[in-house]
Amino acid sequence: MEAAVAMAADACVVSVRVLPDGDTMWIRIIGAVDVGSALALSRAVDRVRDARPRTIIIDLAGVTFAGSVLVHFLIGIHAAGRRSRIRLLRARPVIRVVVAATGVDQFVTFDGDLPG
């Protein structure tokens, strides 16, 4: 029973909003970015495709786990946003390593990293 509670507490929550300037989209991810979060992440990609913001800020401060699903999500955001500038905000060092190791760092900018 405790494992189920811990898993539920670590569920991924993705919130998306367009800022008042109309050109900036803010995506906040909290929890484990894994296979269970794919649908919520896919919906965020769809919102980017519809809005076509100039800048996409992805707040990663609340991410507790990230791997290939995060990489896939960032590639989807890049494709959906076409010419959008993608800024990763408050990423932990492990996220920076995953992004760099996969080459995704070629189309994102890191801002305000969190300590280890």
UniProtKB/TrEMBL annotation:
Domain STAS as annotated: residue spans: 14-116
Keyword set includes Transmembrane: yes
Superkingdom of the source species: Bacteria
SUPFAM superfamilies in the record: SpoIIaa-like
Keyword annotations of the record: Membrane, Transmembrane, Transmembrane helix
Transferase listed as a keyword: no
Pfam families documented for this protein: STAS
InterPro entries (alphabetical): STAS_dom (IPR002645), STAS_dom_sf (IPR036513)
Membrane spanning residue stretches: 57-80
Gene3D superfamilies associated with the record: STAS domain
Protein's name according to its UniProt entry: STAS domain-containing protein
